[in-house]
Amino acid sequence: MHALLALAAATLLATPQFDRARDCAPSPTVGWQNALYVDRGEGLFRQESFLSVTEWGDAAEGDPTASQLIADCFGDPAPHSRLVVLHHLAPLPDSPPRTRPVLLVPGAGDNAIRSYTFMALTLRLAGFEVYALTFAHRHGDNFLQAEQVANAVGVIAARHPGVLVDVVAHSKGGMPARIYASNHAGADWSAASPAYHNGGTRYRGDIGRLLFFGAPLGGLDTSFRWPSANFFPVYGTPLDSPGSWTAFYPGGNRFLGQDLSPYSLYGGADSSFPGQAQMLAPWDDVYELPGGNPLLGVYAAVQQDWFTTYYGGFGFVSDSDGLGDAIEESGHVIDALQGIGVDPAIEVYVVAGGNPILSSAGFGGLAFASWFADGDAAARRNFWQDGVEAVLDLYFPWWPAFEDELPRLLAGTAFLGEISGPSDGVLFVDSALGTDGLTRRGAVIAESRLFQRLNHVELLAAGNLFAEFHRNPDNGFFDPDLAAKYADPENQVLEWLVATLAQPVPEDEPEPEPEPEPEPEPEPEPQPEPEPQPEPEPQPEPEPQPEPEPEPEPTPRGDTPDVGPPVDAGAPPPGQADAAPDAPDGDGSSAPVGCRAAPPAGGSSLWGLMALCVAGVCRRRRPGQRSP
């Protein structure tokens, strides 16, 4: 009851400067209702830096990624970070009633409409009221986004008074959700975000469950570990993701340098990827860098300037300030989070994928086709497949679970992501399941779950709906193998999510009625004191009488036995008298005086000791897993 009162008070006091600016066009496919909100508070939010590749808007017909719909809702392809889009999807009328609403927080480079389609529809069919956020900047500052998470939770809690909000956060979205859930009075964010340290909303106790799906709980170093991605902006096709080089020199010519700093992770809050830099953490002491691991073969050979990229310096064709400088400029956010911990009242779940094969949507297909086009194609294909299997043997002992997906690698419709350690293709499993920092203040990890056949993106969609989507031959995504994969109960992360969120919560259970107090027994009525009786009159002493003369003794009449005192009717019959003190019974035991000795008990009636074993699901610390 006290918790509910505190929650109601927090809802009334929640971010009064957070206003609904306008309603936006609904999503035509899923049915999201979309609204633009603005935080009018001063001193925290700022206009973040955008590159053309990170702005909102999509010229493709039909807006398949919903990017244009988002741009129209914001009213600007590079919106101010005080703006945020809150999406809402009501449950179906005939679905089972649920107590808690659910908020979905998307990862980097994405919006909630595209990333959460299948998860949101699955939750809606199960009866949940679903909300989701799309931040102004796809790679924005996690502290600004943490404030928007607090704003959204406050709005949702006001619509659903008296209940907590369950939050599901994927990938980078786990950062702002975790920051808000950790922002107690003693949290120190001064090195990473002085503005948030001074003005960020303190955690209000309004989250019930917090579920991390492929979130970088232990950080990541992908852009520095795999420097070959830096070549995309060099050749004029920059990706919607950051790099780690500050300059590129064609042919190693220092006089022909190309500035790559706008695409890099340097610059702290002023960079175009501030939220990405805040997720950085070194993993070279756990998993060897691919450029220095000859067992990775061609994957190691193409990592140009891998050493100087990671540790900083001048390479053969590049400059890099190194991972350490990027972490320093961003304020050591992962270290700060690992030392703080989320609120202990939150029920925490962590989910990871274990499949490094990522879909390329046709990317690289032409390159593969040309490579396998001549007479040596079969030999090269076998060499390639043998190499892939050797790589997987290193870090993915469970890779036969997704063996049937290897042909997609050969067809060029998929590629291997992060393979220098067990991963979901983007993030190390050890990072996604790294819970030590979450529990610093006493929070309990309710479940830690690894879906071995799912990659980083599939964690958002795998389940019955996705299986039906790939089973349909008319939608252009027909793939019976993928349909079978997502129909397998072992891979149905969305069905697991529904079962988890449907668990009873304290709000569902009525408070027990207090037992009636026993009525006090009536006090006995006072009795009148007896009247004093008159003292008896003294009697005269009797006169002495003469002693009688003794009578003569009777004459004996034979041998008459002495029968003793009269027999008690309740005594045991002859032969069953009580044993004397400490007299042994027939079985060697002793019985106290006054108790009948029990007959000796057989072995089947002896009491035994029963041990109660509590079965817990504990994740073993993986070899090389780091402690924060």
Explain what this protein looks like in three dimensions.
With 628 residues, the protein is α/β, with parallel strands linked by helices. It has a nine-stranded mixed beta sheet with strand order 1-2-3-5-4-6-7-12-15, sandwiched between helices.
Helices and strands in order:
Elements: H1 2-12, E1 18-23, E2 33-39, H2 67-74, E3 83-89, E4 102-105, H3 112-115, H4 117-125, E5 130-135, H5 142-159, E6 165-170, H6 174-182, H7 194-199, E7 207-213, H8 222-225, H9 231-234, E8 247-248, E9 258-259, H10 274-277, H11 298-301, H12 306-311, E10 313-314, E11 318-320, H13 323-330, H14 333-340, E12 347-353, E13 357-359, H15 365-371, H16 377-395, H17 406-411, E14 414-416, H18 429-432, E15 444-451, H19 464-471, H20 480-487, H21 493-501
Parallel strand pairs: 4-5, 4-6, 6-7, 7-12, 12-15
Antiparallel strand pairs: 1-2, 2-3, 3-5, 8-9, 8-11, 10-11, 13-14
Helix pairs in contact: 1-5, 4-21, 5-6, 19-20
Quick recap:
With 628 residues, the chain is an alpha/beta fold. It is 26% helix and 12% strand.
Rounded radius of gyration (Å): 39 Å
The helix content is 25-40%
Average per-residue pLDDT, rounded, comes to 81
Give the low-pLDDT segments: 1-6, 8-13, 361-372, 509-516, 548-628
Distance between the termini: 37 Å
Numbering strands along the chain, what is their spatial order in the largest sheet? 1-2-3-5-4-6-7-12-15
Number of strands: 15
Strand count, sense and barrel status of the largest sheet are: 9 strands, mixed
